[in-house]
């Protein structure tokens, strides 16, 4: 009886740990599908985000979205922002 209680407690604790680890990240827009790497290449192909900020490339924008530093509703245009 004592062993089954310990097993149940361990299972509950393990489930809690698994839940904490497997939290889903933000749902990224489709244009980020090709940019899943954790490190972006040092390629200069500027994009202007709808926030008015120029980013070095689209990979950097998608990485910032994945890290929840930018909203996933953001849009972009190719090239530098006019304000830069």
Automatic annotation (TrEMBL):
- Record's keyword terms, sorted: Signal
Q: Which residues form the signal peptide?
A: 1-20
| CDD domains, A to Z | KAZAL_FS
Q: Which residues form the Kazal-like domain?
A: 26-83
Lineage top rank: taxon: Eukaryota
One Pfam assignment: Kazal_1
Protein name per the record = Trypsin inhibitor ClTI-1-like isoform X1
């Amino acid at each position: 009886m004592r062993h089954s209680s310990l097993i149940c407690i361990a299972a509950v604790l393990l489930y809690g740990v698994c839940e904490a680890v497997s939290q889903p990240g933000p749902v990224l827009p489709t244009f980020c599908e090709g940019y899943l790497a954790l490190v972006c290449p040092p390629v200069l192909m500027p994009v202007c985000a709808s926030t008015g900020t120029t980013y070095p490339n689209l990979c950097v924008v998608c990485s910032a979205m994945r890290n929840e530093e930018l909203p996933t509703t953001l849009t972009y245009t190719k090239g530098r922002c006019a304000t830069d």
